[in-house]
């Protein structure tokens, strides 16, 4: 995050609060989130896209009531993909018209809840769902604003950019073969639906702009096809999320202005050549907003050198608070933050306390050779998809999220307790 610095005594501070104080007051493991950084990133996205576009924060990256309030204050909209996320958004006062509902298998209950609440859009993901949402809306006597999620034949993950003719995955309706066009045809005939646009999300942790550009171009081409076939110009397109962040110094992320400029240019150009009015663009960044704003603070418990291999450093959390290393081979960095050290570098693997050997937090890192139990380690860039994917494996208590700002720290999601765990057991 942006307000990290090391003070004269060697202790790292974030938002003006020393990590040693955070550990004492709120404990380890814990997620510590820089609220100023979060708000600045929100503002950067809103400013980059301007008033003729909309930014929807992807709640799956991390959502809490405090986060919803910050988003609201900073002028963002919110993408939710489950009833739980919808409930959190509404409970924290996000106006329903600024919420988009996603998901490839929304239940009738979820759809009813969203339509009743008056969400600004539902993103449709299958033929069944087109009929289902139309039915619910009609029963409730409303015309629900919807987008259709299409798969443009571009799959962009991590550093790779692969254009595939046909996609083999569960989301969306394919442009290739005419599924997407058929979905549009159906949606346009149903009274319960107001089709406002086309949606495309091509992947996550992407650095290469080319994938976004191909996606934007193909979505605009579909708009032209819809105009030709039905005589309607859909007013909106959503180009999804996916902008990558720096987990290690090898990553070179793009700024929101770069993606805004690239998307607006390509959409503008394609529309001009097709004779279309430019649609209103929206995007759905999750990771790029919240990812860099938080780090996980751990305490070292054991240090175990394996002769000729590496040193295993066990911390008091692990795969229950960060599954990404085990699940995606994700790379993280780690630093000793409770003191400085003049000791030489020691090839280390930072592991958790769970009962399996795949419980790795940071696969390869150099830590000072005098590392010892009681030292505090910070793993940066854990704001996205860590607390939101945390589990109770081994009956771990999920760590708190603590927001720091101007020398103050406050809990925005409290640590779980044994009572929380036991409350679910019946009998
Ligand atoms: N919009 C849609 C429709 C999405 O499916 C996603 C992410 C986003 C927006 C936000 O993408 P972002 O800007 O955060 O990359 N658990 C994985 C990431 C899964 C992303 C799923 N969809 C991880 O930890 O890397």
From TrEMBL:
The keyword RNA-binding does not apply. Pyridoxal 5'-phosphate binds at residues 242, 284-287, 385. Its cofactor is pyridoxal 5'-phosphate. It catalyses: meso-2,6-diaminopimelate + H(+) = L-lysine + CO2. Its EC number is 4.1.1.20. Residues 37-291 form the Orn/DAP/Arg decarboxylase 2 N-terminal domain. Homodimer. HAMAP family: LysA. Specifically catalyzes the decarboxylation of meso-diaminopimelate (meso-DAP) to L-lysine. NCBIfam families: lysA (TIGR01048). This is Diaminopimelate decarboxylase.
